[in-house]
Design goal:
Blueprint lengths: L4 E4 L3 H9 L4 E4 L5 H6 L7 E4 L9 E3 L4 E3 L5 H6 L1 H6 L9
Parallel strand pairs: 1-3, 2-3
Antiparallel strand pairs: 4-5
Bound molecules: flavin-adenine dinucleotide.
Length: about 100
């Protein structure tokens, strides 16, 4: 990995400001793609802005018109949601 600074965002607004304030900053969600790419030196953000504690980005909402999934909602939460299972069964099927 190349050197980088780390910042944990405490609000969506703070994350957006931190991202706007540094051209090579990157948002960190689960890190499943970004961290391996950084380890392979395929990606070199100057700053990581961690979204992990942003409850505002978590959650599932199901209405008659739409299923809304927050950007930080884990796959497992979506798969376990009974309303999602009714609305879009394929989203609750766990890979065998
Ligand atoms: C073991 C393993 C198995 C996998 N299997 C599959 C598979 O079967 N099918 C498949 O499609 N994928 C698969 N993947 C890839 C996986 O889907 C992605 O790694 C995962 O979705 C990345 O999400 P993340 O939250 O970890 O993102 P991160 O690695 O944190 O971020 C990925 C990118 O998105 C940006 N980003 C993150 N959050 C936001 C946001 N809120 N707004 C804007 N940009 C954002 C980051 O800056 C980064 O550039 C697998 C990965 C692993 C490690």
């Amino acid at each position: 990995m190349y050197p980088f600074t780390y910042e944990r965002a405490h609000s969506v607004e703070a994350a957006a400001n931190a991202l706007a304030g540094e051209a090579d900053a990157k948002l960190l969600a689960g890190g499943q793609t970004l961290l391996p790419a950084m380890k392979l030196r395929l990606n070199a953000p100057s700053k990581l802005i961690d979204l992990g504690k942003l409850g505002d980005l978590k959650g599932v909402q199901v209405t008659a018109e739409a299923v809304s999934v927050g950007a930080m909602t884990p796959h497992a939460t979506v798969a376990a949601d009974a309303e999602v299972a009714k609305a879009i069964p394929g989203l609750s099927e766990r890979p065998s």
